[in-house]
Amino acid sequence: MANSILQVKNITKIYRIYKSNYDRLKEIFFNKKYHKEFISNKNISFELLEGETLGIVGVNGAGKSTILKIIAGVINPTKGQIIRNGRVTALLELGTGFNDELTGYENIFLNGTLIGMTEEDCKNKKQQIIDFSELGDYIFEPIKTYSSGMRMRLAFSIAIFSEPQVLIVDEALSVGDAHFSAKCTKALKDRKKQNMSIIYVSHDLNSLKLLCDRVILLNHGEIVKEGEPEEVINSYNFLISKLNDDEEKIIINDNDSFGTFDVEIVKVTITGMNSKSNIISSGENAEIELEIKSRKNINNLNIGILIKDKFGQDIFGTSTKNEGFEYNLQENETYKIKFNLDLNIGIGKYSISAALVIGENHLDNCLHWLDFATDFEIAGIKGNIFTGMSKLYPKLSKMEKINDK
Ligand SMILES: Nc1ncnc2c1ncn2[C@@H]1O[C@H](COP(=O)(O)OP(=O)(O)OP(=O)(O)O)[C@@H](O)[C@H]1O
């Protein structure tokens, strides 16, 4: 069993909120309460083991950054205790500890020593830091000329080469471009193999699934779930879908919509059967539900759906007629129909178009065609990983030796 490197014990943080600085002063002078209290985190306890990567997820304001700042020692808790059994380095608000007037090179020494490196460490590691950051000659320019992505590259490089026992990463990777984020993810995985412990906060659910051994879900400052990444992220998605319930109704954009409107598509939703939201794992069973309203009696209605990728390419389309069903509708009635399918498609963002037609295709007799009726994201993969757009199920032959003859 791995050793415990960090213990977070019953941490509560109460922020004092003053209407003005004047109220702050009055409180000191008149010994009277001029503030309101806000409980940001309540009774948080967890342990981090050596070599473990722990994810923290939660909606904006759930208390993620506050708990990280307390662990890093940037702010004090109101109650509770942090026991650190190793050096903790935190990559919190990007570039905290940088001096904007100094060059990137000079900041390696400044920031490095701030996070616990010796002068000697900084000298020994500076070239690796510069190489990893890919800043090239910009390293000799003042930090104030850097973009947020460049600051992040330098901050991340210093943090990773400072070789802490615990590295805290708060949303840092979301600032970089895809190439650098992938490089950081790989560096984190390598350090994990060397037994570094990581606390990782992100809204990027896929990277949480890829990196973490365990995830904690925070809501209103409390731990509401802790466990396997897949399971906790499903609970998070469910929580978000509840928050979004009121926004579910689709607004129909005239540019994306045409037809006689004798029957109209009122609403289209997609829900992953595990995630209970529109953030779904590849391979997960999902339901696309259409609500439609008829203005006339209609016979032989054919209902179609089309999934498109973010570039607008058709990924998969089908219709009830393809599946052997047509419908007769009565005037002024509302109906709903569900398509149930396993989403064996690659990671990415998709939209769904829907169509109501009589006949084979939408050009024949189109009652309503609606592009971008709703959207969803494939984040993470159930089962064996794969690359590309679609999951096919290969069967491997036995390996045969080919003899030269
Ligand atoms: N210095 C402060 N004074 C008063 N309230 C604060 C302070 N810092 C944070 N809070 C409040 O504490 C709560 C938790 O904030 P925190 O930044 O920890 O959330 P978060 O989960 O990291 O959010 P996000 O995902 O938006 O970064 C929020 O309601 C926030 O407004």
Automatic annotation (TrEMBL):
InterPro entries attached to this UniProt entry: AAA+_ATPase (IPR003593), ABC_transporter-like_ATP-bd (IPR003439), ABC_transporter-like_CS (IPR017871), ABC_transpr_TagH-like (IPR015860), Bact_Polysacc_Export_ATP-bd (IPR050683), P-loop_NTPase (IPR027417), Wzt_C (IPR029439)
Gene3D superfamilies: abc- transporter (atp binding component) like domain (2.70.50.60), P-loop containing nucleotide triphosphate hydrolases (3.40.50.300)
Keywords: ATP-binding, Nucleotide-binding, Transport
Any one Gene Ontology molecular-function term assigned to this protein's record: ATP binding
An example Gene Ontology CC term for this record: membrane
Source organism superkingdom: Bacteria
Residue ranges annotated for the ABC transporter domain, each copy included: 23-245
Family: Belongs to the ABC transporter superfamily.
Protein's name according to its UniProt entry: ABC transporter ATP-binding protein
Organism of provenance: Halarcobacter mediterraneus
Lineage summary: Bacteria, Pseudomonadati, Campylobacterota, Epsilonproteobacteria, Campylobacterales
